[in-house]
Amino acid sequence: NDDPKSDHYHLIYDFYSFDIGKPTGPFIEVASGIRYKEHQKGIIAYNISLKSRKFKRKNGQEHTIEAKSGLFCKDVGAKTECLSNN
User: What is the pTM of this model?
Assistant: First the structure.
């Protein structure tokens, strides 16, 4: 319910309907506090460290994950589209 007049006002986030399929393996540790998990159609990553970090997936794609943030990314052909973390 995203009606501000409702007594149960909730925010709706894009990742609730972001389908990347089921996980295909365990979390992969890039560095301390930075991990990602491959899914059937994308990845989910998090970075609880104080520094941004670039990492390369097994498929060769590179991503940068900002400090204290997460990524929700969907594979679209040879590219990956990530939700904005703003």
Answer: 0.77
